[in-house]
């Protein structure tokens, strides 16, 4: 399921920055003080107006015309659903014609410290 998160976020970064020369996509990671994990995918693509950020993760919600960028409008909704099921969350920052940055957080593995070596 986490694989699908990466496929959607990286796929969107490629799709929305494809018209840039050069297109730039960056992936970052930072371990959090609570032991959780924060990942970031950013691009220099189309971006979006933050006034519409509340619509980003809704099913069939699109901030760009389908004729400009193909898609179904379910990718980010699926990403949010997967992350929520894993106890995580996702949020975004963007500026039109500058690019977008998507951050997602996953908590430390439950019971990771309680598991001993396999017998």
Automatic annotation (TrEMBL):
Keyword Transmembrane helix listed: no
Reactions this protein catalyses: ATP + protein L-histidine = ADP + protein N-phospho-L-histidine
Q: Name one GO molecular function term.
A: protein kinase activator activity
SUPFAM superfamilies, alphabetized: ATPase domain of HSP90 chaperone/DNA topoisomerase II/histidine kinase
Keyword vocabulary terms for this entry: Kinase, Phosphoprotein, Transferase
User: Which InterPro entries does its entry note?
Assistant: BphY/WalK/GraS-like, HATPase_C_sf, HATPase_dom, His_kinase_dom, Sig_transdc_His_kin-like_C
* Catalytic class of the enzyme: transferase
GO terms under biological process:
osmosensory signaling via phosphorelay pathway
Q: What is its EC number?
A: 2.7.13.3
Q: Where in the numbering of this chain does the Histidine kinase domain appear?
A: 1-110
Q: Which PANTHER family match?
A: BACTERIOPHYTOCHROME, TWO-COMPONENT HISTIDINE KINASE
Protein name (Swiss-Prot/TrEMBL):
histidine kinase
Tell me the organism. Panagrolaimus superbus
